[in-house]
């Protein structure tokens, strides 16, 4: 099959943030090409975006329904192979569902849907159709996250005891959602963002990262959510105590009012014989600490796990960043789509988050919200 | 009064950790001299220590009772002016009480006593006698901690919303208390350390630091304490959600099983207009973050508060450390003792923690322990 | 002109390092597509690479001469618009020259040629043809490098006095060129790399960066080059004192035997009123120091220059890295090619290094080599 | 001999910088006490200082001659054991010489004298009298410097190839010496500071550190010194290429006009199998790099050399700083003086810089100044 995997995009008009990220992440490794899109609910804006992306006029659609139906009629190899959904949260469910129902694989920005009921439907549909679904919990795409996961799995720090995962940002320290900031506007609007604010936007990344790296599951939690900015209706700060299925304990905190913080997702995991520390803002460095000293593990340096190696593109000291981690998800997804087309299998090292992870994230949100309302210390998270 | 302030020491035999710290901290600024001591419950060890410190034989005592009684008989100016109590926790109360009852000022290592009842007694005695009592929550002695406190007080980051304070160590990751490690042995023994383990040893430092820097009081908390190392009887890890009297929220975590961590006390405070970050292991740096960028504040660089300046000894780039912060407490204490002797007053910039701080620390321990046992989410901390 | 700019590539077979970098950098922003290539001097390898890149068979060529001639015959819009030359140094001159002579714009990896005579010819040809030539001194593509350049130009640190630029690597600490490492083999072979080793490979990046950021020209230098690894024939370490045209002084050092260093290009510039520091391995951070304190300047945070802004893709805290800096050159180059096709002009903020920079780099190499042989302290660098 | 070693001080009035450092460094470990002093050339100021230090009136002298003569008449055990010389450079020679001639050991701030002739005289006098002379190249007192030295000596990084040592400061970026800054005034005045400015003040620390850590000797150098600030008469910036006796090469640079730098002495040493990096401003960290990864070596963590251990006072994570490194020199010196008094020998691990180091530093200054004037590239440094 000598061609690239073909992507159709829903959302991602030229002034959007995450659309441009998805497009670059999708195409940079040369495995995927953008062939069509419905880039906005405003047909004019969709046209303008499609032209700016050098797409032919007949592959720029007015809405996702049109895109899915028209593409479906095109012959295999010409039509898109998958749909990439990069809209605000409330428009994840519709295009994902319709794409799956029409036989298209899906990449969807997180959270998978607006609420758990929708997420269950999507997860069930993925199960039923057997189609490939990638949820872009992109931070799991970093090589040093892969290395951390492998190290813990192989016992490098012993049984995990303590996990601290944080995701502080400061950009919503004031009521910027009323100042014309579109990102802020939809992310703080329950109708578009869902029942949670920062918790859904970034807290779920933290939850996903903690479980991905440790291989553990959260089983109980105790949450204290806050809306610090007057006039806001969704949480902009969350403090959560965690308990894991192996007896480990943890803390998860996210914030959008941590004034001066950029996008500082970070995690520390302590086991019986050592600890690991990773910070998204310096993603090529992983610190392995023990009581005998610390070791700086770096992308492309020394003997790394195969998982780290296959998610790295350049030699040591050439920093790979946010786009490359994101691209690792798309590249791995493309490998799976190609294998499906060619009737082959894929090495499990090429992993990516799925609809099941998305569903778990939605249930995590539900559970944290329930705990926040509860006067009981612990709320179970049993899924 | 042309002489140094005279110190008698209880505890601090030559092989102890904290005794040597107190001695260096006390004498390094040239305001205090060690004139006598009861350095061990073992008279031979006390003698040996006193000789190693070049004290005259007649000022090396067999026990603190003897020291206090004998010194009391010496004329003013020859006898010690104050007692420094540097014993394990269970021997704080006795010498402190007796010293106060015999008219001696006191410096006492933290926690102030073994339990709250004793602490109340000491605090009442200090109140009644009017004597000067310094509790060595030494981390408040760092110039950049002073700067942070002044900045917050002056509104540099706006109203405080969020406080994250951490004190992870890794040295008790295994059952070292049974391997002959004396430090570990008494600190994990309830009879010598009190009802809390790591919480009392280092968690109270974190609590004290958070309240000192922010000027806020914790009013509610929710705790999850753990004993991770089998065979241990006191907590070696604590996760605590906090609520403050101005509506701010926080997280306090301490650990002695954070494998690979040395002594990483650190704090982040976020207000409406900015944030501050300080790490004890790089104590001469304070980061002031805002959404417009971050500023590196450094000891002796630029326009610092007077509080920072008077607790600094050298120009920029000459790192001051643990001993100097500790010495700031002793120096300030000496200023107060000297002023008392000379009938003068002291500029409030020369502050230090008191018996009241010690009592508050004991009640914090009680409250965290109660919360840990409770199934209710929130436990009040009203003192 | 509703289409992407079309790239033909010379070199860059699938196992090469820099070819994959160029390809990703070229395509990631969606302005350029790869349409053809002569990827190896081995036609089989070229075929295999082209297929791996999903190119049609008839656009995979046996050699660059064939590519240029055949593409020339295709209609505008179908044929390639420019040639990207990503071969080892000794194969830069040939394809660049032929491409220019046949009317194709060129992107060429650095150094521009094997020697100064060739470089002069290329520079003259660019001048004569008016074609667009981009030399990939990629490190100038980082947003924080742009910011540093703008700050110095606008007087933010006053008149520049002192420049320290370093490029240490450690990968050639042993004679790896005889162990089957292809990268090492050609880079240490004068026939393929030129008269200089590390100096040409990385020292010229340092020279280019220092002059780009400061806006100054080196006028005199004093060099001490070394071959530390026995059996090697080209320099693997260089220490060079610099003097600049405004009276500033500097040091340039590069190394391939700085054991344990990855790719640590970094620069510090001190002016009359402040200093700047940038490190390629943490590229999103620029430190602005003054005697009153330091400021952390970060990609996408606060009020940055327009030059920094237009070379940034994502909000604060989403690290952009090596590929994105490289892509900035390609994107800017594409803007220029597109403007040429459309008869428009380009905002000078979209800059990139040129053949003239390449020629200057070659003369820098010559001058350092001459200085290294000289017993005189200073050798003029007057071009 | 159950008493502290007794120190008399020359210089160090209360408003001086380095006097207070010496006093704290001398007394903090409890081995030395200050018994007398001639603290200023102004007798009134000397009296005032002595009283501020709680000395008896009869041990506060009008000048060093008086101090040495009067103390000489006191009985052993009452009189001072050694003289600490902490005056500006031009008053090092006089008191050192007179002290040695009258049988007193000496601690002297660096540089040892104003010029080489004087230094030779002092070194000869030390040799002749057999008295103990400590030159306070204090940066060699840090535990991690000791560790680095031991690691290199034991082959941990293989044969040394490359040394980069830097000492940038920014405090003399403007002509502060005319603004009433006393430190700046004497340090920029040839009559008080000597023939070199920054080179003598801080460049010699860099030279001493490089040779101490590596165990190598500089044999040739090539210097470019600058006076950047108009109106200044001594160098405020130095760039020096180095060659060492084992074939290694190096760069030494110091500056007092590196605007925004505090006191950033730092060194990187690369050997055949690894590299080491140490920064004075974060002195408890030593980075050991190899091409397989980097290790963070920290004071009190893991298996350190005995040399590092005996120069450390506290467990891991309790930062020791400038005073403690300085104190290590005084403590070691005290051990030697005590051993002399008691007829014992001292373990060589308790080392400190000597008059010979001071003489070498003076000759280094002479050689750099000669090189700076020379048009020849290399000037020999053969001593």
Automatic annotation (TrEMBL), chains A, B, C, D:
GO molecular function list: nucleotide binding
Domain of life: Bacteria
Pfam families to which the protein is assigned, alphabetical: GFO_IDH_MocA, GFO_IDH_MocA_C3
Protein name in the entry: Oxidoreductase
Domain GFO/IDH/MocA-like oxidoreductase, residue spans: 146-276
Domain Gfo/Idh/MocA-like oxidoreductase N-terminal: 5-135
InterPro entries for this protein: Gfo/Idh/MocA-like_OxRdtase_N, Gfo/Idh/MocA_oxidoreduct, GFO_IDH_MocA-like_dom, NAD(P)-bd_dom_sf
């Amino acid at each position: 099959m000598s061609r690239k995997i073909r992507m159709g995009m829903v959302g991602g008009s030229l002034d959007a943030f995450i659309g441009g990220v998805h497009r670059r992440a999708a195409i940079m490794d040369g495995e995927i090409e953008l062939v069509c899109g419905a880039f906005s609910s405003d047909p004019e804006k969709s046209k303008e975006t499609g032209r700016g992306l050098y797409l032919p006029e007949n592959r720029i659609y007015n809405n996702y329904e049109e895109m899915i139906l028209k593409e479906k009629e095109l012959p295999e190899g010409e039509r898109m192979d998958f749909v990439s959904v990069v809209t605000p949260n409330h428009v994840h469910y519709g295009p994902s569902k319709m794409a799956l129902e029409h036989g298209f694989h899906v990449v969807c920005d997180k959270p998978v849907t607006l609420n758990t009921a929708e997420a269950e439907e999507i997860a069930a549909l993925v199960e039923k159709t057997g189609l490939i679904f990638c949820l872009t919990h992109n931070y799991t795409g970093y090589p040093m996250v892969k290395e951390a996961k492998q190290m813990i799995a192989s016992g490098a720090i012993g049984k995990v005891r303590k996990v601290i995962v944080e995701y502080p940002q400061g950009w919503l320290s004031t009521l910027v959602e009323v100042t014309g900031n579109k990102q802020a506007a939809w992310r703080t609007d329950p109708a578009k963002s869902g029942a949670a604010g920062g918790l859904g936007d970034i807290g779920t990344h933290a939850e996903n990262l903690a479980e991905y790296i440790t291989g553990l599951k959260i089983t109980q939690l105790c949450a204290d959510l806050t809306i610090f900015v007057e006039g806001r209706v969704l949480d902009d700060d969350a403090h959560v105590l965690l308990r894991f299925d192996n007896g480990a304990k943890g803390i998860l905190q996210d914030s959008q009012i941590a004034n001066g913080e950029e996008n500082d997702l970070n995690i520390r995991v302590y086991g019986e014989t050592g600890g690991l520390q990773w910070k998204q803002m310096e993603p090529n460095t992983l610190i392995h600490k023990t009581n005998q000293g610390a070791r700086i593990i770096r992308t492309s340096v020394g003997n790394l796990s195969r998982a780290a190696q296959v998610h790295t593109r350049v030699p040591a000291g050439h920093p790979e960043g946010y786009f490359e981690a994101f691209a690792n998800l798309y590249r791995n997804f493309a490998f799976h789509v190609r294998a499906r087309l060619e009737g082959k299998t894929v090495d499990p090292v090429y992993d990516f988050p799925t609809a099941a992870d998305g569903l778990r994230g939605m249930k995590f949100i539900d559970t944290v919200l329930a705990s926040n309302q509860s006067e009981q210390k612990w709320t179970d998270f049993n899924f």
